[in-house]
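Figure 2 data, in text form.
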Amino acid sequence: MDYDKELGDSLETILKTVYSHRGITISQLCAVHRIQITDAASYLDALRQRGYVSCLHDGFRLENDNLPALNDVFSITKNGINYLELQQRFWKQFRVRSVYVPLGVAFLTSVIANLIALWLKR
């Protein structure tokens, strides 16, 4: 995984929320995550600039014209879906390599050691 392209925890959480809701507005995002309107707008704008979400509808603007409107509906793009799939694949591989394989090796080692101990007691 290329860590330069990795999103932070906040942006990744917002991206997962957009994906699960199949389109979300800034006001809905504020209600779901209990964040302020300007923060939600900034997160969605950052995801839009990176190409992970797209804006489907223009609503009324905030004070800052650079940020999205309150009623803009944001939907996840193919790049966003690919990012989430790569992250999921990465964490599955991490769990297998860091948890399941060491547990399996430890189990087999203990079984073999016990079998050898039982064989030597004869």
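Caption note: The mean pLDDT is 84.
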